[in-house]
Design brief:
Elements (H helix, E strand, L loop, with lengths): L3 E5 L8 E5 L4 E5 L5 E9 L2 E4 L7 H11 L4 E2 L5 E2 L3 E4 L2 E4 L10 E2 L9 E7 L4 E9 L10 E9 L3 E10 L5 E3 L2 E2 L2 E2 L9 E3 L3 E6 L5 E7 L7 E2 L6 E6 L7 E7 L4 E7 L5 E5 L7 E6 L5 H4 L4 E3 L4 E12 L2
Antiparallel strand pairs: 1-2, 2-3, 3-4, 4-5, 6-16, 7-10, 8-9, 11-12, 12-13, 13-14, 14-28, 15-27, 17-26, 18-21, 18-23, 19-20, 19-22, 22-25, 23-24, 24-28, 25-26
Length: 319
């Protein structure tokens, strides 16, 4: 059985933890920047496979994170919020327009913030790191105090992330959740195959905001070569009550695959293929973007109550 340890490897001035197995597997987390997944390494026959895109230096992160947002937790909203403002209970809240390509707020409020260490626990088959961030509610764009906790459970060839949000205020709190990992599989994504569970694609307006309408999605019903397909879409699960939904990424050349399994709580997947085609963002999300405005299937956390969400990524060689 493997033995695990927690290592501290700062990325410049940014706190970075590595859960390391004595069998060579590592999971790297940027506690100092959004509780971000920054690397996942597994030993394979020809060396070590890098399965996540991450930042190689603090300068690289500072220069590119606004456009990539690699690996971070998305809380208390995932994806885009239209015109960087939202409405609830007859009030309007103003967020920051934090992207250059549209007048929106993107990816929540905790994705650039330093998270604090809570605990680390290791057994023979896995290790678990817990980080937390306490949002005090002083921000005019989201004046609801809550605690976000993220648990990273790592077993070498798989990891599971559990995200918890606890309302610490005196009034109900609107909420949505997501994660933003970029996966790679030893080839440009043009040469990889993608398979999705039964989904439908959200239709967007000219500002890339969902209209509330959907289109049937069959391109990746079966294992299908991505090729030069560009994807920047939200795919709603047709059966969001299913115990899990699996998104699979295959490399037919070396017979390797990644499975992303979404548990209860996540109702869809945002997928993005970056211009360099070196990796693919597969993002578990509780709702389609702009949930704070359209309120379709809205989540509300009552005072002193919490919600949790989980997903799992697994690596394997297939026949």
């Amino acid at each position: 059985m493997a033995k695990f340890q927690l290592l501290s490897r700062p990325l410049g001035t940014i706190e970075r933890f590595v859960i390391a197995s004595d069998q060579g597997a590592e999971l790297e987390i940027l506690a100092g920047h959004g509780a971000g997944l920054n690397a996942w390494r597994v030993p394979v026959a020809d060396g070590t496979r890098e399965l996540l895109y991450g930042y190689q230096s603090e300068k690289n992160l500072r220069d590119t994170h606004a456009d990539t947002n690699a690996g971070v937790r998305l809380s208390p909203f995932a994806g885009r919020t239209n015109m960087a403002k939202w409405h609830w209970n007859k009030k309007t809240y103003l967020l920051e327009n934090n992207v250059s390509w549209a007048p929106h707020a993107l990816h929540g409020l905790l994705h650039i913030r330093p998270w604090r260490f809570i605990s680390f626990y290791a057994e023979e088959s896995f290790a678990e790191l817990t980080l937390a961030y306490d949002w005090v509610g002083g921000h005019p764009g989201f004046p609801f105090p809550y605690r976000a906790e993220t648990r990273f459970r790592f077993s070498g060839h798989s990891f599971q992330i559990t995200s918890i949000a606890e309302n610490r205020g005196a009034s109900p709190m609107p909420y949505s959740e997501g994660f933003h990992p970029y996966f790679s599989l030893d080839a440009k994504i043009d040469h990889l195959e993608l398979q999705l569970p039964p989904v439908k694609r959200a239709l967007l307006n000219e500002l890339d905001i969902p209209t509330g309408n959907y289109q049937e999605e069959s391109r990746f019903e079966k294992k299908t070569l991505i090729g030069d397909t560009f994807i920047n879409d939200y795919f709603a699960l047709k059966d969001p009550a299913a115990k899990k939904a699996v998104i699979s990424l295959y490399n037919p050349k070396n017979k390797e695959k990644l499975d992303l399994s979404q548990g209860l709580g996540y109702k869809g997947i945002q997928i993005y293929t970056p211009p360099d085609r070196q990796n693919i963002a597969i993002e578990p999300m509780t709702h389609e973007p702009d949930i704070l405005n359209h309120h379709r299937d809205f989540l509300v956390i009552e005072p002193q109550k919490s919600l949790s969400f989980s997903f799992k990524a697994s690596f394997a060689v297939f026949m």
